[in-house]
Amino acid sequence: MSWRDTLPKVRGRLLADEPLAPFTWFRVGGPAELLFLPQDEDDLADFLRGLDPAVPVTVLGVGSNTLVRDGGVEGVVIRLAGRSFGKIEPRGDNRIYAGAAALDAMVAREAGKAGIAGLEFYRGVPGSIGGAAMMNAGCYGAETKDVLVEAYAVTRAGERKTFSNAEMGFSYRKSAKAAAGGLIFTGALFEGTPDDPAAVEARMAEITARRETTQPIREKTGGSTFKNPPGHSSWKLVDEAGWRGKPFGGAMFSPLHANFLINTGEATAADLEGLGEAVRADVKAKTGIELEWEIKRIGRP
Known about the structure:
The mean pLDDT is about 95. This protein is α+β, with helices and mostly antiparallel strands. The chain has 9 helices and 20 strands. Helix content is about 30%, strand content about 30%. The chain has 3 domains: about 80 residues, Uridine Diphospho-n-acetylenolpyruvylglucosamine Reductase, domain 2 (2-Layer Sandwich); about 120 residues, Uridine Diphospho-n-acetylenolpyruvylglucosamine Reductase, domain 3 (2-Layer Sandwich); about 80 residues, Alpha-Beta Complex (Uridine Diphospho-n-acetylenolpyruvylglucosamine Reductase, domain 1).
């Protein structure tokens, strides 16, 4: 008997051998052995409590910063979506709550409408709040750690937890709490400063315009591919190594922004990851600098 034959009852959806490529911005990757779309946080917690602890669990957000390998993902892939996890709600005192599935850009927009400044940078971050909390997402000089009050999560055992900003252990593109594993972030509370909604919107419009002229946001991409090494810009290292716009199977580093890996149409996950690894090796050989992946890679080759 397989573990899939003894699953807990759920109110959400359980989908066996479900293709994951449609859920990612790269549009590549194999299937999930089992995909779970919980109806709400209670459904998620109940499922995790009843799931065999030996079964691997992987969380997939909106798939903006994720590369699913061609062999698919074993165990359960959990994707938080829908109204329950996408809620955005001003809470007074310049605070705003957002569910894990709420798009970063929408959180920035709703904060602005509520007259809350400080979250404008989220307009330029592709992804959702769950991923932002996990990796301290940010851009243009601001990061999640600058505005997060607390984050909410469910453990692998189905227990609910609340973590303060300090407890998250934020550093550049990383949360020590998230890196330790065993947590599924379900939402977060943020705090900004009061400002005129029109002024906030104007700043967000500037961010949008800047992104559209400097980043390939309409391509099948995963956002920034590599973290910036201390004292260096990844795009510059990739560019100077000669990889900007150079085809590699169906993959390429964008001619517009050399740190954006793109699927030019027919790439496999192996093409994309292979190009990334080739660039890492070349940059290290030429400069001695080791690039670190910012894109999360999951599953089996």
